[in-house]
Design a protein that fits this description.
Elements lengths: L3 H29 L16 H8 L5 E7 L4 H14 L3 E7 L4 H6 L7 E6 L2 E4 L5 H13 L3 E7 L15 H9 L2 E7 L12 E5 L7 H12 L3 E5 L15 H10 L1 E3 L3 E4 L2 H5 L8 E2 L16 E2 L6 E3 L5 E8 L4 E4 L15 E2 L3 E9 L6 E7 L15 H12 L22 H30 L1
Parallel strand pairs: 1-2, 5-6, 5-7, 7-8, 8-18
Antiparallel strand pairs: 1-3, 3-4, 9-13, 10-15, 11-12, 14-17, 15-16, 17-18
Length: about 450
């Protein structure tokens, strides 16, 4: 044992045994505990709070059957393993459609790469192999039934099929991802909100609602319905002429929400850093109401917004959701001509921009609900993807539909990391990279050459 060769051989043997032991233990732990670290800034490859909340509250076993060829199983495991890591109640089966054709037919599978979620006898097929698709199927299995969002049309409201900047096509797609069906209804032909509407949406009307239409909305909420009111300032500009809608505003006032006839101009420096003008109030702080409680740390923007005043009514309880900043002003000069800020004349903020209320119907297990926002453009195609706007919209819809357990931050969209430069910045980069840096290198070379001489 005293010879050098023997000692070295013993050292090498021990080292090899230690390394093998470490590898065996590491593989055992990796097989037993599947952990991962998501280094992306928006946690794109992590399950959202919404999914964690739903899976964490499961009362029974949840089975996910994935149908594909064996070669395609690995691609699905990257996503489905995240679900099994959340709860021991989640079980995943991988079924080869070629080896098990009879089982595949019994599930009604029409294409490979399909996942089916099961809880007891209930079964739902995922619309896509994404987190939203899988979690959406889980929600449908748990909740059951279809939730319908009825968007009122006929008075200049935003249109669900309009793909322009002012359209609501993204609104429709966002609701579909959260398992809401959306359709357009008219109160002009029949002044009645259909009984199968889970939520009725008044999406920025530009003309006055008739008395029967307002009465239909009142009756709907009075019977336990849910109303979502998005109302823009009554601007009277050359290309924009929005009516006062006095009858509709009187209904909301009777519920405890007074919609003011003004326009909010916000000089928030944070909004200016984000490239927003004063006509787009930026909200970064929220109240404690369940709709906005998860939005802490998120910014939302509301182009061309009006203020609200809230109080509890005889049958209603109203809560503020969020307000404009201390640097905001409300101008009542909405007529033709340029709208300018006059700190000496205009009222200073903060101003309430959105409110949520409950309506006591007097009937057992029946409660009306309503949300009022002094702006509709935040949900339009041009602004819905701005920071937290999409999450805010879905949280409002979840609360109105009594799906409070679904209120959370949704899976993040892929981050747009493009660098946008103006002409002056581009010229500066070109000057530095093409001329200044090469010139410094040349001067340094000349100085070194001269010193050596």
């Amino acid at each position: 044992m005293n010879t050098r060769q023997t000692r070295y051989a013993a050292y090498v043997t021990v080292y090899i045994l230690v390394i093998l032991a470490i590898i065996v233990v590491a593989n055992f732990l990796a097989n037993r505990y599947n952990k991962a670290y998501d280094s992306t800034t928006n946690k794109r490859y992590s399950l959202s709070d919404q999914t964690k909340k739903i899976v964490g509250e499961l009362k029974g076993d949840l089975n996910i059957a994935y149908f594909d060829q064996t070669s395609g199983f690995q691609g699905a495991r990257d996503l489905l393993d995240r679900y099994t890591n959340l709860s021991p109640k989640v079980h995943v089966r991988y079924i080869d459609v070629l080896k098990n054709p009879q089982l595949t037919r019994s599930y009604g599978i029409k294409s490979t790469g399909t996942a089916v979620v099961e809880i007891g006898p209930k079964r739902e097929e995922a619309k896509s192999m994404t987190e939203e698709g899988i979690t959406g199927a889980i929600v449908r299995v748990i909740k059951g039934g279809q939730r319908v969002v009825c968007v009122i049309s006929g008075n200049g409201e935003h249109q669900l099929d309009d793909t322009g900047d002012n359209g609501f096509s993204s609104f429709k797609e966002t609701l579909q991802r959260d398992n809401y069906e959306s359709r357009t209804i008219s109160l002009l032909q029949k002044a009645e909100v259909p009984a199968d509407c889970t939520v009725a949406v008044v999406a920025g009307p530009t003309t006055d609602y008739s008395a029967p239409a307002v009465k239909a909305l009142e009756t709907y909420v009075d019977n336990g319905g849910r109303g979502f009111f998005l109302l823009d300032p009554p601007l009277k500009q050359r290309r924009v002429d929005i009516s006062d809608n006095a009858a509709l505003l009187a209904l909301l006032d009777s519920w405890g929400v007074t919609v003011d006839k003004d326009l909010i101009l916000d000089q928030n420096p944070i909004g200016q850093l984000a490239g927003l003008g004063p006509e787009v109030p930026l909200v970064t702080t929220y109240e404690s109401q369940p709709i906005v409680a998860p939005l802490k740390g998120q910014a939302t923007g509301f182009p061309l917004a009006r203020s609200l005043s809230v109080k509890n009514g005889a049958k209603t309880q109203v809560d503020k959701l969020f307000s404009s900043s201390d640097g905001s002003f409300a101008t009542t000069t909405l007529g033709p001509g340029e709208i300018t800020l006059d700190p000496a004349k205009d009222k200073r903020g903060p101003f309430v921009l959105a409110a949520a209320g409950t309506y006591t119907t007097g009937k057992p297990n029946s409660q009306g609900r309503f949300v009022v926002v002094g702006n509709s453009a935040f949900a339009a195609n041009s602004f819905l993807r701005f920071n937290g706007n999409r999450d805010l919209l879905l949280n409002m819809m979840n609360w109105l539909a009594s799906d409070e357990d679904l209120i959370s931050i949704r899976p993040k969209e892929p981050e747009d990391r493009r660098l946008t430069l103006n002409r002056a910045q581009m010229s500066m980069i070109r000057l530095v990279s093409q001329f200044l840096l090469p010139l410094i290198i040349i001067i340094a070379g000349i100085m070194v050459w001269a010193r050596r001489r």
